[in-house]
Amino acid sequence: MTKRIFQSILLVTLASLAVSLAFFTAILFPYFENRLADELAQELAYLAPGAVSGGSEYLRQAGAGGNRLTLIAPDGSVLFDTTADPAGLENHADRQEVQQALAGQAGRSVRYSKTLDKKTINCALLLSDGNVLRVSSTQYTGFALLLSLIQPMLMVLALTAVLAGLYAYRLSRRLTRPLNEIDLEHPQPSQAPYEELAPLLRRLAHQKRQIKSQMQELQRQQQQFEAITENMQEGFLVLDAAGSVLSHNSGAARLLNLSSPPTGKNALELGLCEEFSQPVRQALSGDHVESLIPLHGRQCQLFANPVFQGDQLAGTVLVLVDVTEQQQREALRREFSANVSHELKTPLTSISGIAEIMRGGLVPPGDVPHFAGKIYDESQRLIQLVQDILRLSQLDEDSVLEKPQPVDLIACLRRAADQLAPAARAQNVQLAVRGGSVWIQGVAAILDEMVFNLCENAIKYNRPGGSVELWAGADVRGPLLTVSDTGIGIPPEHHARVFERFYRVDKSHSKEIGGTGLGLSIVKHGAAFHHAQVELESTPGVGTTVRLLFPASAQVPAEPL
To answer: Are 367 and 358 in contact (CB under 8 A)?
Structure first.
């Protein structure tokens, strides 16, 4: 701004000086032209006596190196001229200055001279002998006089221009200094250095407030967007029209197993599988794609949606959803359905077969109680299976009808021990309950069922002369329930699967001792219902220990007796 103000002031000053010079020149030139004419008239008056007495010779000497002198007869013929041969000159009777002189006046004219090829100033005087003496000078002489005066004027003008430049510089700095000192980050109209700037500063302050508000809103929206995307379990990527990654969230980096941020990289060059690249290419061509793809041992659902601005493809949004658990649950559901069908079919087939034999009268009267007992056992097995399935369904759907209430874990252990005491004696297994009273907030029916299943398995898979220890108490982590046995143990490769529905380590042995195959699954889901952790330690030939660790927040004070 300082430079522009300086240039403007300097240009205005120089233009004013130029106009002034032209104005003075226009005024002074006529003055000098008249002055030159007066000098020529004085020269005529000086030369007139000599021209009458000395004639041409006198004029030749007088005009040497000076103005042009011309002696003209009354009829207009040229008698003498200092610059040309008189014989070659045309008649001058029609010349204005000659006519004025012959009329007894002071002859004067400004005319272009063919002889001199210049514009000339001519003065003529009638001599006493009747001839006319004329003196002529070029107009350049007038310019020379003018220039002689203009030269010092130009020096003055040059000095004035320098001073004007310095003044313009200082003035521009003085004008712009207050402007440069204005705090545009915090414009204050009341502190405007010039009154004319107050409206501008008010407008700037208003726009500043608007911009600040818009930036805060944009920042809020960006933070909200980042908070949403970063807390998504799904992977989220935004690509431009060329396939370069513009934005992503941590879920995408996790599912794609990226070691470095993909921003700025092409999605097709991330080194992923063809199952990923193909849908991306289709989306970049403008197609909506949904595809199930494998990614680093996981199953992911890929949604690729092109983004258009008008008719122009602007980019693509990719959403990755980890459906591994869903796929596993679906596989488990199918397996569960098949197992349920098989487990239900087995006792029903046995009951149906026995009933058919009895209806046909093929059973001797003495064997009827035996066959009736078989029917009863199979029906009880069927009832237990249905009950276990219903309980798992309730736990899966979180539709348990019983309300949580204070439950003493040691009481659950004692009830299970009392119920299973006959089975323990039949297996020659010692059953002991130890520990102390510890109360938690829970559902007594589910806890009883969990403890019963653990104790029953500890007895079934024990050895003659073995033992089962039930313990309840609390440690630094929270309430704890433990079931330990000295049985056959579980191989390490089966530890992760023993809590699956209908999973059996030794199917032949399991069929011999009975059971629905859902006991440990109920334990697992019951623990999840109570937010408890299940810990399994087992060594083949040594025994098995199962711990149920409840959260500290689940512990409640003992109920008053």
So the answer is: no
Which of 148, 183, 210 is the last residue before a domain boundary?
148
Contact 108, 123 (CB under 8 A): yes
- Do the beta carbons of residue 111 and residue 91 sit within 8 Å? no
Enter the pTM of the model: 0.43
**How far is residue 170 CA from its own chain's centroid?**
46
Range of the domain at 266: 232-320
Separation of alpha carbons 441 and 391, rounded Å? 19
Condensed to tens digits (0 to 9), the pLDDT of residues 175-207 reads 666 666 566 666 666 555 556 666 766 777 778
487: CB partners within 8 A, 6+ apart:
458, 461, 462, 463, 466, 543, 544
Do the beta carbons of residue 283 and residue 289 sit within 8 Å? yes
Evaluate whether 124 touches 113 at the Cβ level (below 8 Å): no
Angle at 245 between CA 240 and CA 250, to 5 degrees: 135
- The domain total for the chain is 5
Q: Of 451, 459, 469, whose CA–CA distance to 514 is shortest?
A: 459
Residue 372 exposure: Cα atoms within 13 Å on the Cβ side: 6
> What are the two backbone dihedrals, phi and then psi, of residue 398, each rounded to the nearest 5 degrees?
55, 45
Confidence grade of residue 61 (pLDDT, cut at 50, 70, 90) = confident
- Nearest Cα to 405, choosing from 451, 435, 448? 448
Confidence of residue 9 (pLDDT cuts 50, 70, 90): low
Q: Are residues 419 and 534 in the same domain?
A: yes
Task: Please tell me the distance from the alpha carbon of residue 193 to that of residue 179, in angstroms, as a whole number.
Answer: 7
C-alpha distances (whole Å) from 390 to each of 270, 384, 522, 523, 532 are: 48, 10, 10, 14, 21
Alpha helices in 104-197 (DSSP H): 140-180
Task: Name residues whose C-beta falls within 8 Å of residue 259's C-beta, 6 or more positions apart in sequence.
Answer: none
